[in-house]
Amino acid sequence: MVKILLIEDEVHVQELVRITLEKEGFRVITALDGKQGLDVARREKPDLIILDLALPVIDGFDVCKILRDQTDTAAIPIIILSARDGETDIVIGLMLGADDYMTKPFSPRELYARIKARLREGQRKNELPNGPLRWGDLEIVQESYIATIAAKPINLTVKEFELLVIFLKNPYQVFSREYLIQKVWGTISGSGSRALDVHISHLRNKLKSLGPVLDSVRGVGYAFVRRV
Ligand code: CA
Question: Global pTM?
Answer without folding.
Answer: 0.59
